Backbone:
């Protein structure tokens, strides 16, 4: 089975959970021997793991015919795309796009991030997708997140192949209900055209059904998973001192400091905990538009001496933070899935998560509270920091539980959906 | 001839309220009064009242034939006294028909039997007194909380003078043996064991209303014929359940009470009798030792401690709770004692179970085992602090040492008293005069009376060892003097 996938991020250059999830899904699917995946990225860096799939860079796909020599292309696209692929794509240019800003190879340059002219990038992405859809041969289209829905629709219209869209988040999660009409329009359009909608949790599925008015029969909850820790990460985590010996406990929040993640509830709960005890420190890692407000709030509550903001973390730093943490908290107001508690639990850090997050649906060995219930959250933090046996139990059992949640199983479930969609 | 032993347990725990860690040290009231009132009135209305009325009805219809046994936990009695006294009245009425035997159990419905035998004895005798005051019966047969039994508990119970004890007919303990015989404790053959028939009991208490069960709907004649079709040698069929099985686990709409009411007649027709546990202990001979190394219980398929002590959190909570037993005993403060009783109830531990339970898994106000654990530990934290604050400068070992010396002294005193009485008796016999025996009985009574307040002082004040021993020794000296005079 050949699948054409559209995505926006891919490790190692990631900005949020989308890249991690895209990697997991493709890797999980690629374990099936007859699976052939082509993954389209706006701007590959060249250091992505291509061992289990093909990557086509949108930035290397021509939409305007340029008369260039084989050697020139080879030298220009070194490590990114084979010249044969370039010429094959060039043969499938389907309209006159000379009015668009293109480079010497007839390609549009993408930032691969989330720039201010995101609307333009999405549109360009969809134009380029038309070329790829005409050149490639595939059985099914799989589009990740709303940025790539227009491209998916385009590919569907060109090829007549079924479209599967993967809802990693909706604008209702990002905005606490005040949706951006343009974004909503793109999302709704994608869902209307899709043959199957995979949602990362039942929570998201309900949003899709109720707010985007989709047929429940074509919406499926497809929970995410985690990848086993690499040796390098395991070595980092191993350096952790046993819980009983740590005199000062650290409670960590890790994520974008934005409205969606509920950082203020974390600060308020921390203030409650610190009213009783002093040997606990709080760490709010990440960055975001609410960071300054949170610094002010921590100061206003008089806990700034025990409340730390180490800033944005990536790669190994994340695991170093987990190593030094005793409790992980994710008080998200609305979280479509939330992979980070799973990662924390992999490292043996007990997690407190809000009931309003998607991962709460598949996790049992963690503490769940309502995001607004700061009393319950503070109570749970305190109990985990002061009770050794309780901490040990949740650390061990949590690790065991998360080890059972693998991308391979998710891949198998996705495959079953693919088969159903194709044979419909 | 076969005989059926019906036994019902009445237990409701005192519900703990939502208690955050910032309440520690400021709020010493731990109970959810609303929930307590609501749950006990609901249970009384839906289950206890109609079920007891049915039992009274059965007793009146079959006077002298129908018999059953009932036990109440101390917390249940307290709840019934304050919120549903009509249940106690019905129990009294049932008692008046003479068909019911009341059994003993630990007051708190906790696991002191596993953790602290001394406290366990005290608890049981407290409940016996309460039962005596309420119903005028002194329990002769014992049942432990959740039917927990092992050899050690059996030994303790035997030493307390009970003739029999109820236990679970757990498959892993019985092996090829049948629960339809009377066994005895392997460490003390005087204690007879009545083993619950797991299947026949749960047919009523858990499967009766289950429409997916192959035997659904179950009628009294079928049930009676199952019992009569058992092999001829099987003598005793023990059917034990909670009283709320009639009405709560099996709703009244399932006609469970009609089933129960029809049962005596059906059994009578088949020549099967009813007996109370102490009748069985008196009549039936034991068919051998039963070795139970690890505690068994009547819950779930495994019949072990896993619903209460299955995970690390539960063991931790239980350990922490019983680690202060000696202090609580030594303090003899009524409020602390009461809180300790309520905190021990097995239900508190069961709420923390992470076991995928076969019977629903009711969690009270908690939405997860972790929630139950944190709440309980917060309360326990406050309670421990209160207990420790009374003697802040003493550590547990010191207290333990003191209490053991006091216990030893008491035992010694008892022995001395007995010796004294013996000597007196021989003296009296030797003298053979009529005057002396009249004067004598006053003295031996006086001696232990004097001894008691002294030991009490020693415990309450808990002064260093020497002082305690010195005080305890004094009355001994007096007693000796008395003997010498006599």
Residues:
């Amino acid at each position: 089975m050949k699948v054409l996938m559209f995505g926006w991020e891919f490790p190692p250059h990631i900005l949020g959970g989308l890249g991690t999830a895209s990697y997991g899904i493709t890797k999980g699917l690629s374990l099936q021997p007859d699976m052939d995946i082509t993954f389209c990225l706006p701007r590959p860096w060249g250091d992505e793991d291509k061992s289990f799939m093909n990557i086509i860079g949108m930035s290397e796909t021509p939409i305007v015919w340029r008369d260039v020599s084989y050697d020139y292309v080879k030298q220009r696209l070194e490590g990114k795309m084979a010249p044969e692929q370039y010429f094959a794509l060039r043969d499938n240019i389907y309209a006159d796009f000379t009015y668009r800003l293109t480079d010497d190879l007839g390609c549009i340059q993408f930032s691969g991030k989330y720039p201010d002219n995101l609307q333009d990038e999405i549109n360009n992405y969809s134009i380029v997708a038309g070329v790829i859809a005409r050149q490639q041969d595939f059985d099914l289209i799989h589009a990740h997140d709303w940025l790539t829905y227009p491209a998916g629709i385009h590919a569907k219209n060109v090829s007549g192949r079924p479209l599967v869209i993967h809802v990693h988040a909706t604008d209702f999660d990002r905005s606490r209900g005040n949706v951006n009409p343009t974004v909503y329009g793109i999302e709704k359009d994608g869902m209307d055209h899709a043959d199957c909608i995979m949602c990362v949790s039942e929570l998201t599925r309900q949003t899709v059904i109720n707010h985007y008015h989709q047929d429940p029969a074509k919406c499926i909850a497809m929970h995410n998973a985690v990848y086993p820790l690499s040796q390098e990460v395991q070595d980092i985590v191993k350096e952790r001192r046993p819980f009983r010996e740590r005199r000062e406990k650290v409670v960590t929040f890790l994520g974008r400091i934005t409205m969606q993640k509920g950082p203020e509830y974390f600060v308020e709960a921390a203030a409650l905990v610190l009213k009783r005890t002093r040997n606990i420190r709080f760490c709010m890692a990440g960055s975001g538009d609410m960071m300054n407000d949170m610094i002010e709030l921590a100061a206003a509550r008089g806990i700034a001496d025990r409340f730390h903001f180490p800033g944005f973390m990536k790669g190994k730093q994340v695991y170093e933070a987990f190593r030094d943490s005793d409790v992980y908290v994710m008080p998200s107001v609305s979280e479509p899935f939330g992979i980070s508690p799973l990662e924390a639990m992999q490292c043996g850090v007990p997690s407190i998560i809000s009931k309003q997050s998607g991962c709460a649906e598949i996790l049992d060995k963690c503490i769940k509270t309502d995001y607004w219930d700061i009393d319950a959250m503070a109570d749970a933090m305190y109990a985990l920091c002061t009770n050794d046996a309780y901490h040990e139990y949740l650390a061990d059992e949590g690790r065991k539980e998360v080890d059972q949640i693998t991308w391979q199983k998710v891949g198998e479930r996705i495959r079953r959906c693919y088969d159903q969609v194709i044979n419909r | 001839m076969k005989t059926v032993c019906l036994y019902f347990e009445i237990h409701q725990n005192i519900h703990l309220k939502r208690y955050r860690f910032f309440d520690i040290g400021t709020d010493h009231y731990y109970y959810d009064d609303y929930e307590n009132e609501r749950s006990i009135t609901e249970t009384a209305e839906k289950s206890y009242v109609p079920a007891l009325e049915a039992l009274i009805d059965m007793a009146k219809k079959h006077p002298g034939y129908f018999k059953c046994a009932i036990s109440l936990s101390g917390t249940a009695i307290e709840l019934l006294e304050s919120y549903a006294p009509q249940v106690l009245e019905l129990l009294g009425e049932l008692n008046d028909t003479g068909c019911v035997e009341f059994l003993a159990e630990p007051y708190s419905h906790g696991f002191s039997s596993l953790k602290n035998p001394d406290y366990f004895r005290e608890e049981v005798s407290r409940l016996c007194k309460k039962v005596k005051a309420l119903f005028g019966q002194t329990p002769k047969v014992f049942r432990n909380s959740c039917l927990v039994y092992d050899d050690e508990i059996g030994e303790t119970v035997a030493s307390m003078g009970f003739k029999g004890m109820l236990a679970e007919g757990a498959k892993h303990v019985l092996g090829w043996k049948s629960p339809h015989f009377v066994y005895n404790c392997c460490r003390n053959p005087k204690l007879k064991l009545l083993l619950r028939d797991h299947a026949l009991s749960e047919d009523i208490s858990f499967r009766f209303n289950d429409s997916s069960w192959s035997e659904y709907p179950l009628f009294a004649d079928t049930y009676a014929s199952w019992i009569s079709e058992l092999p001829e040698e099987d003598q005793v069929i023990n059917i034990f359940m909670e009283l709320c099985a009639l009405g709560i686990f099996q709703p009244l709409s399932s006609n469970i009470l009609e089933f129960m009411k029809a049962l005596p007649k059906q059994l009578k027709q088949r020549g099967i009798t009813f007996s109370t546990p102490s009748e069985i202990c008196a009549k039936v001979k034991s068919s051998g030792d039963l070795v139970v190394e690890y505690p068994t219980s009547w819950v779930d398929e495994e019949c072990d401690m896993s619903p209460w002590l299955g995970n690390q959190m539960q063991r931790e909570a239980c350990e922490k709770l019983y680690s202060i037993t000696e202090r609580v005993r030594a303090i003899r403060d009524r409020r602390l004692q009461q809180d300790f009783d309520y905190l021990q109830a097995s239900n508190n531990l069961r709420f923390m179970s992470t076991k995928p339970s076969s019977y629903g898994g009711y969690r009270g106000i908690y939405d997860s085992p972790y929630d139950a654990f944190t709440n309980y530990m917060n309360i326990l934290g406050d309670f421990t602090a209160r207990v420790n604050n009374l003697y802040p400068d003493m550590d547990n070992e010191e207290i333990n040492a003191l209490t053991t010396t006091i216990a030893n002294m008491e035992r010694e005193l008892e022995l001395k008293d007995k010796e004294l009485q013996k000597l007196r008796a021989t003296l009296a016999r030797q003298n053979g005069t009529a005057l002396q025996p009249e004067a004598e009985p006053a003295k031996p009574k006086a001696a232990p009376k004097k001894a008691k307040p002294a030991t009490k002082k020693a415990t309450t004040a808990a002064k260093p060892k020497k002082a305690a021993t010195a005080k305890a020794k004094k009355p001994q000296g007096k007693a000796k003097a008395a003997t010498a005079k006599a």
